[in-house]
Structure formats: C-alpha cells, structure tokens
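Problem 12. The chain below contains 547 residues. Write out its predicted structure in token notation.
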Amino acid sequence: MKKITVLKDEGIAEVIDRVLEEPGDEVVVVIPKESALGRSMRNFHLLKREADAAGKTVTIESVDENILAFAKESGLEGSHPLWRGTGGVADIVPANEEAGEDPAPKKRSRKKTEPVKLTVHKEEEESDEEAAKEAETFEEEEGRFFKKRSAPEMGEENEEEEEPRRGVSHKLVWGGIIAVVIVFAALGIITWSFGHVNIAIDFQKTPWNYEGSVVAGKSIATSTANGAVISIHAAVFSLPKNTTQLFPASGNANVSIKAQGTITIYNAYSSAKQDLVASTRFVTPDGKLFRLVNNVTVPGAQVTNGQIVPSSIDAPAVADQAGTSYNVGPVDKLTIPGFQGSPKYNAFYGQLKSGTSGGFVGKRAVPTAADIASAKTKVTAVLQANLTSDLTTRYPDNFKILDGATSAQVTKLTANTSTDASGNFSVFGEASLQAIGFDESVLKAFLLSLASEGRPDFVWNSFTQNYSGVHADFAKGTVSFSLSALGTLTRAFDENAFKASIAGKSIGDARTAIAAIPGLTDGKISAWPVWLWSIPSNPNKVQITAN
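Solution.
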C-alpha cells in the first residue's frame, strides 16, 4: 500500500493526478491539518469518483476531524495516525526522512516525476512516548488556527453534527442550481439582445487597363468593339431658351412715343374664322383709335344648342397717335370701323382688359448704339448660362456630356429702344443649345465584358477613366473621343444572399461556407459574446465587409 503526503495548499486536481499515477491499487492519502482539501466535501466526492473509475482503493489519513468526517461522508475509509494498532502495521515515509533530512515534502508540479525512493519502518520502532509527543504537537497546531474540538470516541458516530451538515449541503446544492439557472438566463438574454457577428472577406483582385477610341452616336443601337474602337449609343439633347432684360439708356432726345397694349378680339358672328390685317382699326367709345400691329386670324365661334358662344384671341395693338392721352385704362368694348354698315359690326369687337401705356411726347432718355451693343452681349451671356444650368437638370445622372460636346446658338436679339418712365430700354434674346451625351454606366458595363471575357461572376472592384480629344458632329449626332481606363476585377459577391445562407448555422459551418466562396484570399469571422456559437438569424446583427 503506497502512501501520498498532501501539501497544505495542494488542490484536489493535483492530488487526483498523484493518486492515478501510483501503480498500485491501494493508496493512502495523508492530509495535514489546515489542508485546502478540508474546505469542501466536494473534494472528497471527486477523489472517490476518480479513484473508483480507475479501480483504486483510497484511504484517508489525517489528524483533522473535519477531513475524516468528509472522507466518511464521501464513502472513503479514514483513519487517525494516533489510532494505530500494536504490531504488524507498516508506516511508509520518504527515504530522505530516514536520512535526517527535512521531512516536509516540496510542492509538487503536475508534471510526472521519477518515483520517490521509500523506506519501510516497523511501527514497533516508534515508542509510546514519541507518539504522545506527536499527538501533543498536532493538538497545539490545531489550537493555533481552529477552535478547540474534542475528538469523538472510537466507533461512536457524531449524530448531532452530521445532520446539520447534511442540511447545509442540500441548501448549497439548491442555491448552486438556482445560481446556475440565473447565470444561464442572463447569458441567454445578453446573447439574444447583443450577440453579433463580424465577417471580413478579401477577394483576389485582377488588374486591367484599356487604351482606345470611342464613338458614340444616336444611330448606334448596341455596343460593339472593332479592334481598338468601341461604338456605343448616344443621345442628342436640344434646349430652347429666351429672355428679356432691361438696361439703362445713357442718351437723351426729343421723342414721340405711341401707347401700346394688348387687345382681345371676339367673334360672336359665326363659326367661320375671320382674318384681320395689320393696322386694322379699333375705336374706343370716346373716339381714340388703336391699330393691330400684326395680321390676326380670329377663330370661329362655337354654336351650342343654336346659341353662339363667342371665341377670342389676343393681339398687340398700338395707338394711332403719340402722347400720354392714349395711355388709357381698361376699355370693355372697341368697335371695328371697317365693319360698319354690315352685320359683323356688332358681332366683332375688341376689349382692352389692362389698358394701354407708354405714350409720350417730349425729351426723354434713349439708348445709344453702345448701350444697345453692350446689352446684347450681356443677354447672350445670360442665355448661355441659363442653357447650361437647364441642361444639367434635363438629362439623367448617369449620362455623360463631355466638354466640347455642346453647342449654344443665339437665334434672336432684338432691342426695344423705347424707354420706360425709369429710362430703361429692353433687349429680347432667344437661343438654343445642342448636346450629345452617352450613358456612362453602359460604357463601364461593356468594358467589364471585355475585361472579364464574358464571365458574369466578375465585377469591378475599382474603376477609373479619362476622356480626351473630344470631337462632336451635331449634324450627324455623334461624338468621338479617346479613352484611357484602369480597373481591378474581383468576384461578384451578394452580401444579403450570403447572410441568408448562413443565418442560424453554427460558427463552424459559417467558417466552412466562407472558405468555399470562389476567389477568396482571406476570410475572418468574429463573434460577440465569445460563447456565441451560431450566426444570428437577424441580418442586422451580421456585418460583412467585403474587399
């Protein structure tokens, strides 16, 4: 029977390892007073369980009554070193103790060491006097650290002490179970509420570049490549614009200005239209004469249920004479002297809804030739700026209109030299803009098909392009330019689809799925909290960074 001496601070795991390392089936474990093993009965249950599993018989030897009581409760044999029999019992001690060396064993490590040489002494060699001294020494040490206890008589069970111990043990067990349940519940709530996974994926990247020419035209339906020339579809944009601007006149002159206004002409005669020539006269009830500025065609009236519903048209009119007396207010009805004596006289008439203005005779500010030239230049600039601003809002964002692919033309500039009461004259301008643009996303997609050789599982990881040498032909609706493109290709990756494919799977399965992604160079997955073992089903808790 081999004997093992336990150090005071030695844990149960180390003791079990030492017991299992012994070759024999019977082992005596000597446990000193104040040993760490005496703090919990669970240590002895573990020792009993592991010894039984290894087929070993373990006996506990100690001067500590608590340790002996724990051993008995756990089903281990226990004995006090002072209760030895008289003769025939062997005491196994380390060999260095016989040689007079320090008998206190050094702290053992878990690493397996060479077996210690042992020397066997007969119990008869120990005198009764030495045994008494040893017992007295144990009692003194016990008194220093623990409350004095009386040892029970041999064969006598401490009924009063055992029952309370059992009660405390049950409370501890139930308390431990409740604590474990609470801990697991808290861990579950933390995992459900805050658990998330971060996945970083790096793909293999293939560089690619292109140097060539591009022709974009409105008659080109599909994108093609012929050697170093790419042909793509283009769109032609056309925008008209007009404006009237006021400018101060710097000259002075005696002027005679006729009042002007807008006259509304009514046809209450028939459904037939009526032509009126320029200078047709209209007379107010007080005899003031106004004339049409341009030829006018008055539309035919509508006839509903036998009743004529008059039609009308607006036309500019000017006073027959200059002067402020022709600056009149609204006039409800002006007759046409040319129809006098016919049924049309009362059926065709005019109305000055807003009156007339501008009539003047006397000295007044007038624009000089320099004033007019400067005003026309400024109106031209305004038209070009307005056309450029309008163009950016007319075509889609993905369209590209290169510098040099636009043309703005001023089609009309007219100066009205008559000044208003503030001495300002006006300039009317009209212009149009043409632009030729192409869908830049279509060009980029076509270049991808060239770079990937038609493999749909490749996408641009990065792409830059530079255009130069722009030439536009507005008559044909084409624009040509030089193209320099540089990009890197990588495998297409659908983050949302991948999230859905690994949702609810274990972290290990997710790693396997990442490793199976085509074109992968590196992949990492990290989970929080550390005990999270599956991918959250909520896609918002899975963050994927693909590069």
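Discussion. The first strand starts at residue 2 and ends at 5. Students who got a different answer should revisit the alignment rule from Section 12.3.
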